[in-house]
Amino acid sequence: MSIAARTVQVSPGGRPASGYDILLEPGSSAALPRFLTERLPDCRAAVVVTDEHLQTVATPMADALRGVGVTAKVHVVAAGERSKSLESMHGIFEALLDLKADRRACLVAVGGGVVGDLTGYAAASYMRGIALVQVPTSLLAMVDSSVGGKTGVNLPRGKNLVGAFHQPAGVLIDPDVLATLPDREYHGGLAEVVKYGVISDAEFFAWLEKHAEAILAREAGVLVPLIARCCELKAAVVAADEFETTGVRATLNYGHTFAHAFENLAGYGVLSHGEAVSVGMTCAARLAVARGMIEQAVFDRQTALLQRFQLPIELPAAVDASADAVLAAMRSDKKNVAGALRLVLPVRLGEVRIFADVPEEQVAAALVAS
Amino acid sequence: MSIAARTVQVSPGGRPASGYDILLEPGSSAALPRFLTERLPDCRAAVVVTDEHLQTVATPMADALRGVGVTAKVHVVAAGERSKSLESMHGIFEALLDLKADRRACLVAVGGGVVGDLTGYAAASYMRGIALVQVPTSLLAMVDSSVGGKTGVNLPRGKNLVGAFHQPAGVLIDPDVLATLPDREYHGGLAEVVKYGVISDAEFFAWLEKHAEAILAREAGVLVPLIARCCELKAAVVAADEFETTGVRATLNYGHTFAHAFENLAGYGVLSHGEAVSVGMTCAARLAVARGMIEQAVFDRQTALLQRFQLPIELPAAVDASADAVLAAMRSDKKNVAGALRLVLPVRLGEVRIFADVPEEQVAAALVAS
Predict the structure, then answer these.
(1) Cα A216 from Cα A222, distance rounded (Å)
(2) Where does this protein act, in terms of pathway (chains A, B) (predicted)?
(3) In angstroms, rounded to a whole number, what is the distance separating the alpha carbons of residues A85 and A115?
(4) Which of A210, A293, B151, B222 stands 20 to 30 A from B132 (CA)?
(5) Which ipTM value was assigned to this complex?
(6) What is the mean pLDDT of chain B?
(7) With bands split at pLDDT 50, 70 and 90, how would you rate the model's confidence at A212?
(8) What was the pLDDT predicted at A127?
(9) B330 to A150, A228, B280: CA distances (angstroms)
(10) Which residues of A touch B157 (CB under 8 A)?
(11) Quick check: helix, strand or coil at residue B83?
(12) Cα B182 from chain centroid (whole Å)
């Protein structure tokens, strides 16, 4: 293991028995066969799921798996949110059946959040659960969606409406693959990175401010500690609240109640998820300032860092940002309980709390700069 | 609670926290609102899933739920195995969305194994898991599929290939509804009842022999203890091995490796599941006699009881029972590991063990009476 390598342990719900590790190392894509066989010694068949943009990454992985005696094939889904569907999941089942995959088979997800969520739900479901190895290739997937066991697909009437909690057997992160990630996707991932600082680690937030230039330049020397710290912070949340029942995990939703509404109103694809989160965090922080919960200076630091990372802090003109439309979309968020809006708001840099009693007029006022 | 009522506690995996109870009482269908609200006090919306033959049972249940402040609607699926599909599950999601169901909503499964398995998987999946109440209406569902948390649907290429382990919040069994169950379905359920005796309770087996006439006449005085004992036996297995990992749960599969092959070869519907299990148990017991594991007398008692319950002990002539065809179908059973046939065979009345080393010629020889 090179000196740049890091390992993060995850113990969902505090149960070491269901624990797994995240291996974070430049160039580790080539180490998949060893990573997989160490964790799944009985696995003899694997389907490597990826999207069409990543076939050149996934194909050598499947070849390498065959080299260690695992029957492997690549299954390609279309890139984009539309592949997070029950139909796409059925396609993965067919690929498993083609390999005569039994319960010892595994799925390997090579891609961003769409591939990871879809493949994870397929792994949770095939024969009531087979093993999953996550190989996230986008920054967003590395710091967020590949850790924590949330999997799922969309329905025509909404995102992530069905799925399962299914922890992976391991997560293999090769930061080198970020070199070719499109700028807009990379910056979108940074929105979630900033989020971790605001919700739980002021020191990490300051570290991000200090290294903003190197982060934007995707220097390996900062990417490894950056991703590792995000994974550690998420792992701590998942250890405390695996199934989103105690409220701890809900803190990860900072900015997201706004963001989901914005994504709905914009139509998927107009705003990236990270861009929506960036605007959502801006609204949430503005609301916290208006309620006297944080100083204006906290809002300003968050805004400056988001902008430094080339993220928007307001909606594009094309999106209907009327208060009525946004509030209606927010009310339909599945995280709400019994109809009340649940908002995650900062109480200082590095700490958030959940509020279910914010008047809708206050929420509406926070949508735009006054 | 009437003196005829019984309650069986289930603690999957030995974890009391995920435990639930089975309430078994003649006439208890009318008690659904209290049963549900006691266990799910926060539930405000419920979809009652049933098939077209049971609408007259399910509709008053939904009406009664509305009477206690739970927004409820009946969702009807076509009767029969074809409804165990991803498409039917999507229909249940749509019904939940129509009610704006949040994570506190629940699903109520009123029906046999098809409705229970389908609805259970939908409950496991909607918003990554909502509560489920099982109201089994067939004998098979009462003694087997409603207990233990196995849920799932079929794929075009095979039965039960996808699903989840999802324990219900409670199971409500009203033996009175068995009065109108078609004979063939009732007898099919008795195959699983006989199975419990053979695999784990010789005393219960003898009780079944003694009360065969009253059982066939569906007398309430025998139905309550019969169903309760089967639920207790299954609950003990589920407590020891919730996720089918230790081999204990696999003992429930007695006769089923044969049966699944027979069902595949016959085409779904020609043989009922219970009929296939009856023939499968006969083959398994014959194999055990041939291997010198049990006395001929055990085989004879099992055969006599199955026949007393009007169950077949050999395949109908229309089914291709050639050894090659049966063995090929058995090899594709998802319970197999690494290609070896895993067979559950009796070692005495009331005890079975798992064998992975039975030569295929022996299996072939056990398919027909010599």
Answers:
(1) 10
(2) Metabolic intermediate biosynthesis; chorismate biosynthesis; chorismate from D-erythrose 4-phosphate and phosphoenolpyruvate: step 2/7
(3) 11
(4) B222
(5) 0.90
(6) 93
(7) very high
(8) 96
(9) 35, 47, 11
(10) 94, 97
(11) helix
(12) 17
Of A124-138, A217-231, B164-178, B256-270, the one with minimum mean pLDDT is B256-270
- What single-letter amino acid sits at B237? V
Catalytic residue among B219, B244, B314, B351: B244
CA distances to A274, A287, B130 from B87, in Å: 32, 42, 19
* Residue B184, number of CB atoms within 10 A of its CB: 12
Q: What is chain A's mean pLDDT, rounded?
A: 93
Which residues of A are the active-site residues? 128, 150, 192, 234, 244, 249, 253, 256, 260, 273
Quick check: is B260 catalytic?
A: yes
Tokens encoding A156: 């025509």
More confident residue, B73 or A370: B73
In the chain, the amino acid numbered A271 is L
Calpha distance A48→A67 (Å, rounded): 15
How far apart are alpha carbons A41 and B274 in whole angstroms?
A: 37
Note the pLDDT tens digit of each residue in B110-142: 999 999 999 999 999 999 999 999 999 999 999
Residue with tokens 């190197």: A214
Q: How far is B252 from B243, CA to CA, in rounded Å? A: 13
The total number of residues shown for chain B amounts to 370
Please give the Cα distance from B309 to B209 (Å, whole number). Answer: 10
Interacting residues of B331 by C-beta distance below 8 A, sequence separation 6+: B339, B341
Q: Which residues of B are annotated as a binding site for NAD(+)?
A: 113-117, 137-138, 150, 159
Give the rounded percent of residues in chain A with a pLDDT score beyond 90. Answer: 79
Quick one: tokens of A349?
């840099």
User: How many whole angstroms separate alpha carbon A278 and alpha carbon A255?
Assistant: 7
Distance, CA of A179 to CA of B317 (rounded, Å)? 66
What residues in A contact B165, CB-CB < 8 Å?
128-129
Tell me, what's the pLDDT at B354? 94
B163 bridge partner residues? B152
Q: Which of A270, A276, A268 is nearest to A154 (CA)?
A: A268
Q: Tell me which amino acid residue A39 is.
A: R
Non-local (6+) Cβ contacts of B26 within 8 A are: B2, B4, B5, B174, B175, B176, B220, B224
Distances in Å between the Cα of B256 and the Cα atoms of B108, B243, B344, B357 are: 28, 18, 9, 17
Copy the structure tokens of residue A362: 């206050």
Average confidence (pLDDT) over A309-322: 90
Cα–Cα distance between B60 and B313 in angstroms, integer?
40
Predicted confidence at residue A268, as pLDDT, reads 63
* Contacts A158 to B, Cβ<8 Å: 97
The Cα–Cα gap between B122 and B114 comes to 12
**Per-residue pLDDT tens over the stretch B67-126:** 999 999 999 999 998 999 999 999 999 999 999 999 999 999 999 999 999 999 999 999
Question: Which among A102, A104, A161 has the least Cβ separation from residue B93?
Answer: A161
Q: Find where tokens 């089918």 sit.
A: B244
